[in-house]
Design goal:
209 residues, mainly alpha, Rossmann fold
Length: 209
């Protein structure tokens, strides 16, 4: 939902979209890929990249990529959650930077949200700013990429409201960490999403168990 809204916000600002999706052996990989293609169709994206990474499966260490680790369903954990995938956003941003440099893109948009950052260190605004500096130091002198975080200071209810304002097809998005047919409704990601819809006073259009 966050990435989709950020793409719609960039299109609303007048940017052409190059869409990037990562298959990293996450539990809901098939559903996420389906949603990616559907959202790209809705946005009328002409160029997209689907990148396959088996590294995270080999790495394990996360409930999203290691099926021997159960996805927590009892509410927010203390400290870094077991659903944290080590340095995932850093790796994704590095790959997106390579695409951006090749394509001559001005900006990378990422849907990180500060509300999530207490658990995920790679969602922090300070980290993304540091990554932008590192990317520009490690690319050609004429490359100057901005990493934009349009949602970073929004609450989930504000994200829902902004999505409705821009007519984002929220029914095409997916947030659940563990289920592909119908969202579980009890993992941390589902809880955040459902709470956002509840506070916004609207019903989530996706199917839940």
């Amino acid at each position: 939902m966050d990435s989709t809204l950020s793409a719609y916000m960039m299109q609303d600002r007048g940017y052409d979209i190059i869409a990037v999706h990562f298959n990293y052996d996450q539990r809901t990989q098939t559903k996420e890929l389906e949603c990616f293609h559907n959202v790209c169709d809705a946005l009328e994206v002409k160029e997209k990249y689907v990148l396959d990474l088996d590294f995270f499966k080999q790495l394990g260490a996360s409930a999203l990529t290691d099926k021997s680790i159960e996805v927590p369903t009892e509410g927010v954990e203390e400290g870094v959650p077991i659903t944290y995938v080590p340095f995932r956003n850093g790796i994704f941003l590095s790959m997106a930077a390579a695409i951006a440099e090749k394509e001559g893109a001005e900006l990378i948009s990422i849907g990180v949200v500060q509300e999530d950052s207490s658990g995920y260190p790679d969602c922090r605004e300070s980290y993304i700013h540091s990554m932008q500096n590192a990317i520009n130091l490690g690319t050609k002198d004429e490359t100057n990429i901005i990493i934009d975080m349009p949602l970073v200071h929004l609450m989930k209810s504000e994200i829902v409201a902004k999505a409705l304002e821009l007519k984002v097809p929220l029914e095409l998005t997916w947030s659940c960490y563990q289920s592909e047919y119908a969202a579980c409704g009890v993992c941390d990601s589902c809880r955040l999403r459902l709470n956002g819809f509840r506070k916004a006073g609207v019903t989530d259009p996706i199917k839940y168990v």
